[in-house]
Design brief:
This protein is α/β, with parallel strands linked by helices and 419 residues long. It is 55% helix and 7% strand. The chain has 15 helices and five strands. It is elongated, with a radius of gyration of 27 Å.
Length: 419
Amino acid sequence: MRNPTTTTLGYALFATRWLQAPLYFGLVAAQGVYVYKFFKELWTLIKMCVSGHATETYVMLAVLKLVDVVMIANLLIMVIVGGYETFVSRIGLQGHRDQPEWLSHVNSNVLKVKLATAIVGISSVHLLQMFVDVHHTSRHALLWGTVIHMAFIFSAAILAYMSGPMAAHGDRGHADRPQAGPGRAAPPQVEQDHGDQRHGKPEQEAPAATPAVPRQPGPGPGPGPDADAEARIRAARFPARKLLEDFDQQHPRGFDRETVARLGKAEFVAARRNVVLVGPPGTGKTHLAIGLGVRACQAGHRVLFATAAEWAARLSDARAAGRLDAELAALDEYPLLIVDEVGYTPFDAATAGLFFRLVAHRYERASLIVTSDRPFGRWDEVFGACAPAMVDRLAHHADVVRLDGDSYRTRRATSAWAD
């Protein structure tokens, strides 16, 4: 039990963060000064050009000065928004169409690196101004300008290098934190056959050609696996570990290997795009979904896997407890959610509405991987009237991979019977 005095003191100390708020509003005023300076320099440049007194060197220096002002204004925005978000109070911009990409995962380490790189950019513009106007710049000034610029580059490199272990330590803390807790329902671990989850390579198979899906470079499964990636993989609650390298590409009669190989780089997660895997049961949809999820974990993203039925139960429990909005916001911690087996069981109107809320909440904000046994045109059989609006948001920024073929499990059973 906590000491009330200690708790009160802690809250009081934490409340002092609001003392920084006037500082950020002061930076807003400074940004207004730079806006004034920009238009003053621009007006001077226009007058010089119209009067015919502007030389090429003057125009270049004036444009560089304008660029310098813009870059400093950008630096101010980064400090104002990022610093306020990190050190004072959370800015509720979730879902805003103009939300910066970096704001969704801003922290002190990210902010420091971005500020350092912005300063390097500003220093580069200043150094370029000196070299453009080299005839009016002393050798002493050029030498020290170059030395200072290299010092900025070296400092930015050191900050970027140090931010890696710090970010990894933060990810380890998130990964080790239990996913279930008071007020949050976790997807149950079921032992039933999850459709495509049992899909794998045949035990006896003819030598196959070189896989079209390349092995992901860097940390991953194998000798000496990266501990942080392994922690994220365990926290993702995959029913089994399935790798893209182990996918039997000879089984489906047809699927877009190039698209799967591109998705295997996990860049779609950072781009907040979706992936929809469509095909009959047993064609490897779940295998690919888990494989892409593992790749995302190895790329540093947090992932959460569950079947459509499990997601329905989780969202229904949250709605019944009156915390659906809080649950959807909590899922923002995961850049990638995987919804498996859509279409195997139709949902009532209320549950379909919950799935629409999930898709709409993550629209252009975070990624989804969805596996389904039926194309979008038949999703009304599962979600009813919600299907068109749901498909519209899900497919807007999505890669759809169609897998054709017979069930892998049925084929194995048939072969065993024939033998």
